Automatic annotation (TrEMBL):
It comes from the Eukaryota. InterPro entries: FAD/NAD-bd_sf (IPR036188), Prenylcys_lyase (IPR010795), Prenylcysteine_Oxase1 (IPR017046). The chain crosses the membrane at residues 51-72, 584-607. Belongs to the prenylcysteine oxidase family. Keywords: FAD, Flavoprotein, Glycoprotein, Membrane, Oxidoreductase, Signal, Transmembrane, Transmembrane helix. Coiled coil: none annotated. This is Prenylcysteine lyase domain-containing protein. Residues 216-548 form the Prenylcysteine lyase domain. Its cofactor is FAD. One of its GO terms (molecular function) is prenylcysteine oxidase activity. One of its GO terms (biological process) is prenylcysteine catabolic process.
Length: 616
């Protein structure tokens, strides 16, 4: 039987549960109940967060649109509408592939490369083509002689007195010579380091290079003969350099800008009322207490070797520089030709083109087309004079070799193009005659040395004999130097080389102020005739060997106001060797390299200023 259903629950008087007014489905917890004010505050916070999110998103969207336009749309538009990039071409010509010319090419390239980013930012593409014109068959300038008939003559052989470690560091970028054995100093094994000073009869005295290597016994003998001059001589440059350093400090402290050698001289005269390097060398020697016999026997031959002039013709700064080069001596590389290799390396870095065998006859500044003026170089084939001359058009020109400026620039139709130099006053140079010969043994002499069988010092410097004319065989000799052994068997430094059957052979160099025959040399020095190999005797003239120098006084007319110290000498033409520099300081490999790089850098910065005008 079916059971009756249970009755519904009875009602109670308990109140119903309370519900949230926000959501009727969720009960309001008494533990977390919110007041109306708290609820309103939360609502405001939520709205603020939402607004902040919208604002941030809008900002990101704006930056995205801007970036998209700059990177993509602008690139598409520019590519499609022919970009406004200006291509500026400059053609720079350099006359001379010696140290000055190669350094100038490197200087131009270094500065242009440094300004490359600046050009790019200004939408300018600067293309600089550098061409070096060289008359010789290889680079090296005055340090190269052609036609050696198979004799291996390197630039170090010709300029053997001009090389030292600093020069190798600067030119070759060899800041740290890790293999010092690659550069050997003059060795006693072959008489290196010892210099004989001789008169017409015998060797008067011997000195050592560098000075500090002089043995004590020999030093005492010099002291006995020449007195206090022996220890005072090394201090000759001190007075000169003291004044010069004071001037340099003044220039640095006052931030004085100098644009030419002439301006340096002018400023220096204002600071000191005289020029430290305007004092005649003879006056400097007198101030330093150097005796006449020491000057005659030792200093005069040393200075003549480096300058080609007597002490009476020089300034005290030129004297100091010559003696400094004499003291440093000459580092001779085992791997002969290292200087040539370093110049070639620098040439490759400069990306310059070299035209060997190209002799520059004339340079004219002319209007080539309407509104375009340029330098026109007339070139002649140095190896084939029958070929007609060619013309090369250049925007800029650097003269990095000794030339007759009247002949080179004097035919310019626009005479206003040469404005900073009186081209009728060319730099005066003295020639030197250089002779190479080989011997079967080291040279000896039956008269110059007491023991005629012992070898002569590796270098001989003559003492001028005032009783003979300057053109006499004795007085015409400037230097006789043993350079190096040619065969491995005769070289004390090639101990690792295998034995060879070749006979010993030694290379010598002779410098003279006039041509000298082999017979005259043998007679003058009393050299055994059978030692010298007659077939090896080769002689050349180096026309621009020594720039003629003078003591430079303020207001004496030697450059004050004539522009002779300026590097820029006309419209788009610069010169590295100038009366202002070489007329006082002389020439040298080190100075040529430094000045070449300086002038090249000046031209490079000039191109930068040109960019401002054309594209900036």
């Amino acid at each position: 039987m079916n059971k009756p259903a249970s009755p519904p629950p009875s009602y109670t008087s308990e109140s119903l549960p309370s519900y949230s007014e926000i959501s009727p489905l969720i009960p309001r917890s008494r533990q977390y109940s919110l007041s109306d004010s708290q609820y309103t505050t939360n609502q405001k916070k939520n709205i603020g967060q939402i607004l902040l999110s919208y604002i941030s998103g809008a900002i990101i969207l704006i930056f995205f649109v801007i970036g998209f336009y700059n990177v993509i749309l602008r690139g598409i538009l520019v590519d499609g509408d022919d970009p406004e990039i200006q291509v500026v071409n400059f053609k720079v010509g350099i006359i001379g592939a010696g140290p000055a010319g190669i350094a100038a090419a490197q200087g131009v390239r270094d500065v242009v490369s440094a300004l490359g980013r600046k050009f790019k930012d200004g939408n300018v593409d600067v293309q600089v083509e550098v061409i070096i014109f060289e008359e010789k068959s290889r680079i090296g300038g005055r340090m190269v002689v052609d036609g050696t008939d198979g004799m291996d003559i390197e630039v170090e052989d010709i300029a053997s007195g001009a090389f030292h470690a600093d020069l190798f560091n600067i030119i070759g970028g060899m800041t740290d010579l890790e293999k010092k054995e690659d550069l050997i100093v003059e060795s006693e094994d072959v008489g290196m380091g010892k210099v004989g000073h001789f008169d017409t009869n015998h060797i008067i005295t011997e000195t050592y290079r560098p000075y500090a290597t002089t043995p004590w016994s020999h030093y005492l003998s010099l002291l006995w003969k020449y007195g206090s001059s022996v220890w005072r001589a090394p201090k000759i440059p001190i007075g000169t350099m003291k004044s010069f350093n004071t001037f340099l400090r003044t220039m640095n402290n006052e931030h004085i800008s100098i644009s030419s050698v002439r301006e340096i001289i002018s400023k220096m005269s204002q600071q000191h009322t005289y020029l430290s390097f305007s004092i005649p060398a003879t006056e400097r020697l007198k101030k330093n207490g150097i005796g006449n016999n020491y000057i005659r026997d030792i200093l005069a031959p040393q200075v003549r070797r480096h300058t080609g002039q007597s002490i009476e013709q020089l300034s005290d700064l030129a004297l100091s520089m010559a003696l400094e080069r004499e003291e440093m001596g000459s580092h001779k590389a085992v791997n002969n030709g290292i200087f040539q290799m370093m110049m070639e390396k620098s040439l490759r870095n400069s990306k310059a083109t070299v035209r060997l065998g190209a002799k520059v006859k004339q340079a004219r500044w002319e209007e080539v087309t309407e509104d375009y003026e340029a330098w026109l170089l007339e070139l002649e084939n140095a190896t084939n004079k029958d070929e007609p001359p060619t013309i090369e058009t250049l925007d800029k020109l650097i003269i990095a070799t000794p030339l007759n400026y009247t002949e080179l620039l004097g035919q310019s139709k626009d005479h206003d193009s040469i404005f900073n130099v009186d081209i009728t006053q060319d730099i005066e140079y003295q020639p030197v005659y250089i002779t190479f010969f080989t011997t079967s043994s080291l040279l000896t002499s039956t008269s110059l040395k007491e023991k005629s069988s012992s070898p002569l010092p590796s270098q001989l410097l003559p003492i001028i004999d005032n009783t003979q004319p300057l053109t006499s065989p004795h007085n015409t000799i400037i230097e006789l130097t043993f350079l190096r052994p040619l065969n491995p068997s005769s070289s004390p430094h090639d101990q690792n080389q295998p034995p060879t059957s070749l006979p010993p052979k030694y290379l010598y160099k002779l410098l003279t102020s006039t041509p000298l025959t082999l017979t005259s040399l043998i007679t003058t020095l009393a050299i055994p005739e059978n030692i010298i190999e007659r077939d090896s005797w080769i002689q050349w003239e180096i026309s621009y060997a020594y720039p003629r120098m003078w003591p430079w006084f303020v207001g004496d007319g030697n450059g004050s106001g004539d522009g002779s110290g300026e590097f820029q000498v006309g419209k788009q033409v610069w010169r590295i060797n100038s009366n202002g520099a070489e007329g006082v300081l002389g020439g040298g490999v080190y100075g040529a390299w430094v000045l070449g790089g300086l002038v090249g850098g000046v031209l490079g910065w000039w191109l930068g200023e040109r960019w401002r005008w054309r594209g900036g």
